[in-house]
Design a protein that fits this description.
single chain; 4 helices; Cytidine Deaminase, domain 2
Amino acid sequence: MPEPQWTEIHEKALAMAWRARSHAWAPYSGFKVGCALMFPGGEIVPGCNVENASYGLTQCAERCAVCAAVARGLLGFTDAIVVTDLKKPAPPCGACRQVLFEFSPGATVWLVGSGGGKSRHIVGELLPEAFRFDGPGR
């Protein structure tokens, strides 16, 4: 399998992730995150983190993007681009890794920091031994 490459569509998704990040609601941590999911056929779905005073109700950018995609009937993203204003790219939290795995364990995750640095990962590699439910309806 060839290594995933950064393309012009990734640049478009990156711009959408940065724009989504600018809309993040992070009055408690001040840590804004943006995400853009890329789908076959060129659709891109952005998401941003939305904090809540009850921290457990906070939604991360990756999960917001996944929920928005599912609401549009889009499954099986090929790439996720996650951006933060940290110089060094920041990886998704454990909950987001599990949610990304649920929908696209083989997808590429691109982490981008404000300094322009990028790192590339495969969802399944970010969450070894991920939980998978193979019960009724699966």
